[in-house]
Design goal:
Blueprint (H helix, E strand, L loop, with lengths): L3 H17 L5 H9 L3 E2 L5 E4 L6 E5 L2 E4 L36 H29 L8 H21 L2 E18 L2 E14 L4 E4 L10 E4 L7 E2 L3
Antiparallel strand pairs: 1-2, 2-3, 3-4, 5-6, 5-8, 6-7, 8-9
Length: 229
């Protein structure tokens, strides 16, 4: 009978060889590796870590390094190719997929549209009341563009979704306009995340974010949040 763990290790070695030879890309390697899973007699799920080939088991709500064999762990796989991304403990398999959420986007956009109409209507009425050169008939023409821009920005934010792990933090100097052609410089803190697709993303960090935290932005949410909070 074929040992499923030995078979998975053979698949991993073949994928590593194909990657080193340039027959597959890093993204293809990760996609194929994510499909290699072994379920043991206790119903626990095992997977091989990217880069190191170390076995991890999903136990007690988290991934833990372990060996599926009663004896010492088998020899490590071939050396990681230089194009590989930094080794990180896998986490995606224990999380629900990022999908759907369009109903929440529709509800949120409806609320945003109502709020935008009310706000710009109040601004227009204030201009009519407090200025002499602004008439009520001008409101639709003047307010349409900023209202449309506001809705477009809201939709772009609410319709996006992603998940990633914090690799570090950095400070960036940014210019802020203070009015009357004046501006000032301020230091802004950003978190650098490695997304599930391997790309990097910078976001303003929330309270108590730390290196290694998994951050998620789901469709329909206004802001990302740290998983586990």
């Amino acid at each position: 009978m074929v040992d499923p763990f030995r078979q998975a290790e053979a698949q991993y070695r073949q994928l590593s060889s194909d990657l080193a030879a340039g027959r597959i890309s890093v993204d293809q390697f990760r996609n194929l590796l994510s499909q290699i899973r072994v379920t043991d007699a206790q119903g626990r799920t095992w997977m091989l870590q990217e880069g190191s080939g170390q076995w991890y088991v999903w136990d007690n709500g988290q991934w833990q390094a372990a060996s599926p064999y009663p004896a010492a762990p088998s020899a490590p796989p071939p050396t990681q190719a230089p194009t590989m991304a930094p080794i990180q403990q896998p986490y995606q398999a224990g999380l629900p997929p990022l999908e759907g959420g369009w109903g929440r986007v529709f509800t949120g956009m409806l609320k945003t549209a109502i709020a935008t109409i009310v706000i710009f209507a109040l601004i227009g009425l204030a201009l009519v009341y407090f200025t002499d050169d602004f008439e009520l008939s001008q409101m639709p023409k003047v307010m349409l563009l900023p209202a449309a821009i506001s809705l477009i920005i809201s939709y772009a934010n609410m319709s996006s979704q992603w998940r990633g792990r914090i690799e570090g933090f950095y400070d960036k100097r940014e210019r802020r306009n203070t009015g009357d052609d004046d501006y000032t410089w301020e230091t802004v803190r950003y978190a650098r995340l490695r997304l599930e697709n391997g790309k990097l993303k910078s976001v303003r960090p929330g309270r108590n974010w730390q290196v290694g935290d998994v951050i998620e932005k789901r469709r329909g949410d206004w802001a990302p949040k740290k998983l586990g909070q």
